[in-house]
Amino acid sequence: MPYTAELLKRTIEKNLPGSVAEVHDLKGTGDHFDAVIVCPEFEGKSRIEQHRMVHKATNELLEGDIHAFHFTTLTPDAAREGQPSR
Predict the structure, then answer these.
(1) Which of 7, 16, 39, 74 could form a disulfide with 79 if both were Cys (CB 3.0 to 4.6 A apart)?
(2) Which pLDDT belongs to residue 84?
(3) What is the pTM of this model?
(4) Rounded to 5 degrees, what angle do the CA atoms 65, 68, 70 make?
């Protein structure tokens, strides 16, 4: 079953409270996505910890038919400054 960018966005925002996600379907096929995720809970976390949080939040979808999911994580401060979080 192909997914939609909107479904992935809603799933991220539901499972990472306070987050804002911008998700794009890269091929229009519902299985390759790119996202930018801004979340206050990323503050003070390493990049690996942030990515684990996103994977946990999207696990139910990633176990399905999504073949590629590239994402960037940002804290709110980093998003305002246009810088990736560390």
Answers:
(1) 74
(2) 57
(3) 0.89
(4) 135
Tokens of 41: 């809970």
Give every residue of the chain whose pLDDT is below 50, as ranges: 86
Tokens of 18: 């306070």
Strand partners, 70: 34
CB 35 within 8 Å of CB 21:
yes
Q: 3-class secondary structure for the chain?
A: CCCCHHHHHHHHHHHCCCCEEEEEECCCCCCEEEEEEECHHHCCCCHHHHHHHHHHHHHHHHCCCCCEEEEEEECHHHHHHCCCCC
Residue 17, both tokens: 């409270």
Distance CA 54, CA 84 (A): 15
List phi, psi (to 5°) of 30: 75, 20
Roughly what angle, to the nearest 10 degrees, separates helices 47-62 and 5-15? 120
